[in-house]
Structures are given as C-alpha cells and as structure tokens.
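Figure 3 (text version): structure tokens given as input.
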C-alpha cells in the first residue's frame, strides 16, 4: 500500500505585489488543466509580493504586507477551495498584530481554508527586514501524510529540517527566492537535509530573470528525483510515495544507516552546550501519525 502525493512545483518569476490575484488564479487553473491529478501546488518564496532591487524594496515589502485574515488570504483560500487542491502560493509578506513584518508561507486546503502558516525563522541577515518566526510548523494532508514548512535561508540551518522531521514531517516544502550565486550550495543542502533526516525535500526557486531557478525534488535517501537545470519558467511535476519515508527509516539509507534508531534506552543524555540543552534518547524518535 502506498500513499501517493502528486505535486507541481512552479518555477516562475515573482508577480508584482500590485498585480490582481485574478491573474494568479487563472495561472493555477491553467496549471491544473495540464496536470489534473495534482494534489499539492507550490510556488516560490514571495511569488505574490514581487519587488525590485531598488533602495525602496523594504518599503515595497511593507506596503505589500497584509494580516493573514486579510483580503489576499481570503481570496487564496477561496481559490484552493474552488480548485480542490492544497495550495502553497509561495510565501507572502504578513503584517503581524504588533506591526511586525513576517515572511510567511501559508497553506490553503481543498476545502477552502487557511490550514497552516509558517513564519520564516531565519531571515537572511543583514539583507532582509523581516521579524523572525518563533515556531516550527507541520501539517497533515489527510490523503497523503505530513508536510513541514521552511523558507529559503532556513535550509542553511540544520535545526529547522531536524525539528520538522522530529515533528513527523515526511516532506519538507522549501519555497526559495535565490537571486545570488549560492544556489549551487542550496542544491547540496537540499540533498543533505533529505539524507540526514530521511525525508523528501521540495526546493522551488524563482525563475529568471530575477532568480537563478534550478528547482528540484529530493527523495529520503538524497537522490534527486527530478530537477530543472536552468532558470527558465517551468513546472516540475512528480508523484511522491510517502511510504518511502517509513521504508528508508526501517531498512536504512542505502540499506544501512538508521539515524532515528541511534539510541538505546540505556544511553545517557548528551549535553549540547551550543543550545544550553541536550539530546535525550527518550525523546529522539520522530512523531508518527
């Protein structure tokens, strides 16, 4: 028995923040007309809040910010409900209750509601003006399994992927807006985060001329299932079998390594001076269900 999750990752340039959402809705509708079995649609970071590289970019981001119960979110929820899909429209600029500016990845459900949202924990300092989020977020897709959310630079911090996997994520969705020369390193990190946590990783980057593209899907053993070799506008499709995660964790990566079963009940806790905490063997294994 398998748990298939048909996905579509859209490598596209950002839309202007002032562009009407009706155009985005038409784009998603056309996508699903081409790939009607898709259950999860993912766009790049800040896809709906496109800004230029001018000194006014910070102001543009703040001008694009809305609360998560604002009109943009309501329209996106309605779109997901009308189309009957799980929709991650990239990340958006969120205005917090106290006036904060968050870089937030919302997830909208096939029944037309905001099912989850994740605020980027590691903004790219010193270049991004966002306030950091304070929690890790996972979400159950009832027909498939559990996904975890991260945004772009979060992938450089192993704590994020580790916590998402520990919370039961079988897929890490990582919308990206990389415009710089470090995309090559991000491709390595996508594979590394998949390998050390035995999860799928979906990394979808912005297309040119703004972004450097090269989106990819990585399986729980670190193999690249499908990828885009350039920065062109394209759609990356795949069908993930989330039972692969359980298989790899049961039999080991390459039939060998079972990192989530590293500790025995007799092993003492390991202090972690960097965090002022420790690894407790009794809390090591991931959540299930």
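Below: residues designed for each position.
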């Amino acid at each position: 028995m398998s748990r298939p999750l048909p996905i579509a990752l859209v490598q596209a340039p950002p839309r202007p923040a002032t562009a009407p959402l009706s155009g985005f809705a038409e784009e998603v509708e056309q996508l699903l007309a081409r790939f009607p079995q898709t259950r999860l649609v993912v766009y790049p970071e800040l896809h709906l809040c496109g800004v230029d590289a001018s000194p006014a970019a910070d102001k543009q981001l703040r001008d694009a910010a809305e609360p998560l119960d604002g009109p943009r979110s309501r329209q996106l929820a309605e779109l997901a409900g009308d189309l009957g899909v799980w929709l991650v429209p990239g990340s958006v600029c969120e205005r917090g209750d106290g006036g904060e500016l968050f870089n937030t990845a919302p997830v909208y459900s096939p029944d037309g509601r905001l099912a989850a949202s994740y605020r980027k924990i590691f903004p790219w300092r010193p270049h991004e003006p966002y306030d950091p989020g304070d929690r890790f977020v996972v979400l159950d897709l009832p027909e498939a399994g559990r996904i975890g959310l991260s945004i772009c630079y979060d992938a450089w911090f192993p704590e994020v992927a580790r916590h998402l996997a520990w919370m039961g994520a079988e897929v890490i969705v990582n919308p990206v807006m990389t415009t710089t020369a470090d995309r090559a390193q991000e491709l390595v990190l996508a594979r590394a985060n998949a390998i050390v946590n035995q999860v799928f990783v979906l990394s979808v980057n912005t297309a040119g001329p703004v972004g450097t593209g090269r989106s990819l899907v990585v399986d729980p053993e670190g193999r690249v299932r499908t990828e885009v070799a350039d920065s062109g506008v394209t759609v990356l499709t795949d069908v993930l079998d989330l039972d692969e995660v359980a298989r790899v964790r049961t039999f080991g990566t390459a039939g060998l390594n079972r990192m989530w079963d590293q500790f025995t009940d007799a092993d003492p806790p390991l202090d972690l001076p960097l965090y002022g905490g420790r690894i407790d063997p009794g809390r090591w294994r991931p959540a299930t269900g």
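Helices lie at 21-34, 57-64, 71-83, 158-166, 183-197, 243-251.
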